[in-house]
Design brief:
Keywords: Cell membrane, Ion transport, Membrane, Transmembrane, Transmembrane helix, Transport. It is a multi-pass membrane protein. The chain has about 475 residues and is mainly α. It has one domain. About 65% of the residues lie in helices and about 0% in strands. A two-stranded antiparallel sheet has the order 1-2. α5 runs antiparallel to α6 and α11 packs antiparallel against α13. The longest helix has 29 residues. It is globular and about 70 Å long. The termini are far apart.
């Protein structure tokens, strides 16, 4: 009998462990893509936390406290825009580059990013991975039951969707940066500094993050409607979502040929945009601390700007802490809804709101099914929409109660910042910067739950689904 040398055993042992780890990752991408997606975001957050903790990332060369580094990493990867430190003065150029890269990685979305990494590992997209990738535009894809192919991107088009995500991100941000650069020069920004600030603003607008590359934020550009308008366009495109961009790229402006998801997303987005602006204008036009000193045109424009930013944009010209309490409530409602599915925006998503509104309307009309644009919405989608709202409201409520108890701050300020974190908006009344470490961890968890998505988390916990081959007797409880 021949004996292997210790070096040979160590060599083959290392290779064996590496092969087993590789096989485990490959099986995870095909058998449980939702858990893999959550794992990808966790790993990214840990990596960026470590990088933000490095002395080189801070402007003063000192190590950033763990709570602040973790919060910044979560806010960056989850494209939220909230911060516990001054994002301009605290970080070094290396730290600002980390932020720029982090928001673009996070903007690709947890499911899309997981599908791309899964493709690299497994050399192919398995059927369940394709279902999950398509599921970001239609949550029914992650569940059993009949699926209407016209509602979302088909399985064979997932590769095209992934390519659209990367190409559209680069192309849109490049165009936005080109448009922003002249405005920055006219505002007196140094040409070399503007070469950095233009793509930075472009990335923060399209990813709906809202970080700014200067100390004064948007205050110097409060009257530059072209620059603010470009930012609004970037935020709006980011809110639409990649499936909608994919559909519009293929079908152009032929609205009748759009998928039902694209139709509902665009219509609901525009409806909320105008209704939100109208409500903000009505509530704030006489507030001397915000719009009271502006003329009619300025007030109208700023109302539309705030309506767009409360949907997930995160940029602000006026101090959120100076708004009326009623306006904060309207802003909280807009933030909770958020943008489109598979987009850079957060919230429960506009299609979720649209489905629930259609279900209520159908129930009021006595219809047996929910129908819109000549299509019937399956009951599975309605149940998922209801679940998303219920889980989202639960997360917001628990976080608000916990942070209020820790800080003893006014509940309206806590609620606004918690919803901003959950919906990955980034607007703040000023509370987030003053949070103690325990509340910082709660807010970071809230941002993570809001970005990963309640549907994804539910699918990750219950990775296996069982078919029920029998039906129980029906009994109707009293509702309402």
């Amino acid at each position: 009998m021949t004996s292997e040398s210790p070096g040979l055993r160590r060599r083959f042992g290392w290779r064996g462990r590496a092969a087993r780890l590789w096989d485990t990752l490959r099986d995870l991408t095909t058998n449980s893509p939702a858990r893999f997606a959550v794992g990808v975001f966790v790993v990214l957050i840990l990596i960026f936390t470590l990088l933000y903790s490095l002395p080189a990332a801070a402007a003063d060369g000192q190590r950033t406290p763990f709570a602040d580094a973790l919060f910044t990493a979560v806010s960056t990867i989850c494209v939220t825009g909230l911060s516990t430190v001054n994002m301009y003065t605290h970080w070094s150029p290396f730290g600002h580059v980390l932020t720029f890269l982090g928001v673009n990685v996070g903007a690709m979305g947890v499911l899309t990013l997981a599908s791309i990494l899964g493709l690299v590992i497994s050399k192919r997209l398995g059927l369940r991975a394709k279902l999950i990738a398509a599921g970001d535009s239609n949550p029914l894809r992650a569940h059993g039951g009949p699926v209407n192919e016209g509602q979302t991107v088909r399985l064979g088009e997932v590769g095209g969707l992934l390519a659209t995500v990367a190409l559209s991100t680069l192309a849109i941000e490049a165009v936005l940066a080109i448009l922003l650069y002249p405005s920055l020069l006219m505002a007196g920004i140094d040409p070399l500094a503007a070469l950095w600030e233009a793509p930075y603003y472009a990335a923060m607008s399209f990813t709906n993050t809202g970080f700014v590359p200067n100390a004064d934020g948007l205050a110097p550009f409060a009257d530059d409607y072209f620059l603010l308008g470009v930012l609004m366009v970037g935020v709006f495109l980011g809110q639409l979502g990649f499936p909608v961009i994919f559909t519009m790229a293929r079908k152009k402006w032929h609205f009748r040929l759009w998928s039902l998801h694209a139709k509902l997303t665009v219509i609901t987005t525009m409806l909320l945009f105008f209704l939100g602006a109208g409500a903000i204008l009505l509530l704030e036009y006489a507030n001397p601390r915000t719009f009271g000193s502006m003329d009619a045109w300025d007030t109208t424009f700023q109302s539309f700007f705030m309506s767009a930013m409360t949907r997930s944009g995160g940029f602000a010209v006026v101090d959120m802490g100076e708004l009326h309490g009623s306006t904060l409530v309207v802003g909280s409602m807009l933030m909770f809804v958020g943008g489109g599915s598979a987009s850079t925006a957060g919230g429960i998503k506009v299609t979720t709101l649209a489905i629930l509104a259609l279900a209520v309307w159908s129930e009021a009309k006595g219809r047996r099914s929910v129908e819109v644009f000549g299509r019937r919405v399956p009951s599975d989608v309605q149940r998922v929409a209801l679940s998303v709202v219920a889980w989202g409201a639960t997360i917001v409520a628990l976080s608000t109660i916990t942070i209020t108890q820790i800080t003893q701050a006014p509940v309206e300020d806590v609620l606004f910042d918690v919803i901003s974190g959950f919906a990955t908006v980034g607007l703040s009344t000023g509370l987030t910067e003053t949070l103690p470490d325990p509340a910082v961890y709660v807010m970071a968890l809230t941002m993570f739950m809001g970005r990963v998505g309640t549907v994804t988390l539910a699918a990750a916990v219950a990775a296996t689904s069982r078919s029920q081959l029998y039906s129980l007797p029906v009994e109707r409880p009293i509702v309402g």
